[in-house]
Amino acid sequence: MKSEDNDNIRKFNITTEIIKQINPYDFTPINIKTIRKFCYLGLLQAKYRPRCWKILLGYFSSNKFKSSLYYKKQRQAYKSYLNDIENTETSYYDVLVNDVTRTFIEPVLFYKKETCAFLDTKHKNSNLTHRSKIIRILKCFVLHNKSVGYIQGMVMLLIPIYKVFITSDDSEDTLYAEEDAFYCFNYLMLNLYENFLSYIDNEQNLKILMCNVWDILNKVDPVLYTCCVKKSIHESPIFLKWLFFLFSTEFKTEEVIWLWDRLLSDSNRFNILNFCIVAVFRNLRTTILNDSYEQIMYSMQNISLLDIKSIFYDGETIRLSLCTLEE
Questions:
Q1: What's a Gene Ontology MF term here (predicted)?
Q2: Whole-prediction pTM value?
């Protein structure tokens, strides 16, 4: 009981420290390492998530007492970006609009027409739906990142960020959810830039990304790895989608947000992803060892049936075990 009490006291003290750090009116300086540890350990409460995510995604002022001025300038700049997209046409716009239009994260039937309980509701401070706001964010991103453009599925990397802000208890977060989500998404894409360029241009780089995962699996479960090779599963790029889109295309948004608390705060940014992918293979071990290629592919296309928390914790255990062996 005493150990549990000490643990609760420790969590309370860490939480109190983080609240001070993310409060723009408190003198406690921001310590990104502390905030990352706080989020990675799963101590982040929903009401503090918007501010912590802004910090984890590089959207904050280095001088916390100038935060109001910093955000004011960024949000004003975004308005000029909106004017730019009204006066610019690019082939990517059609691709992204079609992709966002087909996206239903919470599908429901309304007068026999499929709609989305979240995306197709209106922003409370605007006549636009969340879907329309997301289209505008992506158009602004494409206009200022023409080397990457838009790749099908990118919308799923934006939705968790936007939803964290638009569902915040803080009125400022909801009022400027579109603007803030744009900058956070832009920063996230900078971190994923090389992966997406590989996706576009370089088959050799794709093979390297795949080999990183297979090397880990071979170290922790050589029997399963050998089976994957024999059944030609190792030639399938199916898990690259999990890697590129941070599992956002596979699980419910709330589950993705839970996972991203940890992915965004990983000190080796997104390194844990490879281990989570290996954890998926190990969760499907019985299927892979005993079933046909077609059945295995079906299971890999439906990993939403797995528990996202188990995948993460198993992945973390795998990473720690390999680090211990290498030491």
A1: GTPase activator activity
A2: 0.93
